[in-house]
């Protein structure tokens, strides 16, 4: 079992010996062993007491035969269940010191990068409500260090790939049926600014395709690109989060205020802006902290300046879970139920409903009526409960989003002075 072997190897020698002797003494099955190792890796990630130090060994030893292993697993599950299902406590967590390992010097041109792709929602069926976003990956890998990020596990860790001949390659793409392109899936859209001509090439493409909306998504503190002029069908969005999550989990990124200020500058230039309150984390005091995020948006922008606001939560693939568990940079993002949903692992629907509904309720009526709110990659059953509207299929969602985005782009173009 590759996953099991990788996990065993990831522990230091002393811990590995203790774990293996426990497995041996209590004759754990392979699946019990895997569960124990995953939980122990998570406990290390969270900086919590090791499972090895919480077991009631006299009680376990008093059981007979297989009941010993069953008692041990019962105690393990009870311990981790409490941590996974209650709001994460960040007051006892010390974030790691992350050094900017990848800088512009590590950027290499990589013209083999596959340029166009599709949103990473599950392809089969409509298990999540998906807007069918077309993705454009001109840059791959990121220099920031968000602890939940899947990009870190996809690409070679120390190299940032950038397409050098983007302008030429964009001239060759088949745009049939494309109306919305997102550039923030394989990196941060503004990580490199225009240092490698990426934004200039996107401007050129946007100007020649006025009915295609290009969406940039960022957490970058970078502002040098703001002296450029951008066509109105380029929409600038920032991912926002509660201040605690930015400080403890989104390493090296801009502060909440810096992100809002950057968006304000772009809105002052006449460009449409938007926000992704994503990934929301269920932690102690989440209500107050997300309320403050909403208050900052509402105090700084008018609804007409905003193209969209999306909500989403932490969601992990099996591959990313294994990557986080074997690399073990301290983080509490996996301190969550990790229930399976559409092939990924996330919060329960009840926790998601509570968070989305609550945060949506913080927005005033004029925002709800004039800004396109949506749930990103979420179960269709959550829409009506959280946003007071729903779609019968992905196509309907995509058409509605297209109508709203293009209306806003046209309104912003006509107000251009
Ligand atoms: S900014 Fe985006 S791409 Fe970069 S590490 Fe964070 S989530 Fe990943």
Pick out its properties.
15 strands; three-stranded mixed β-sheet; 2 domains; eight-stranded mixed β-sheet; pyruvate-formate lyase- activating enzyme; 417 residues; alpha/beta; binds iron/sulfur cluster
Strand content: 5-15%
Number of strands: 15
Q: Estimate the helix proportion, in percent.
A: 40-55%
- Number of helical segments? 16
Structural classification: alpha/beta
Bound ligands: iron/sulfur cluster
Which residues sit in consecutive blocks of at least 5 with pLDDT less than 50? none
Whole-number count of domains: 2
Written description of the protein model:
Helix 1 (2-10) runs parallel beside helix 12 (318-327) and helix 3 packs parallel to helix 5. The chain starts with a helix and ends with a helix. The radius of gyration is 23 Å and the shape is globular. It is α/β, with parallel strands linked by helices. The longest helix is centred in the last third of the chain and has 21 residues, at 394-414. The mean pLDDT is 93. The protein has 2 domains: 2-85, no CATH class; 104-414, pyruvate-formate lyase- activating enzyme (Alpha-Beta Horseshoe), CATH 3.80.30.30. Helices cover 42% and strands 14% of the residues. 37% of the residues are buried. Bound molecules: iron/sulfur cluster (SF4). Iron/sulfur cluster (SF4) is lined by residues 142, 144-146, 149, 151, 187-188, 219, 253.
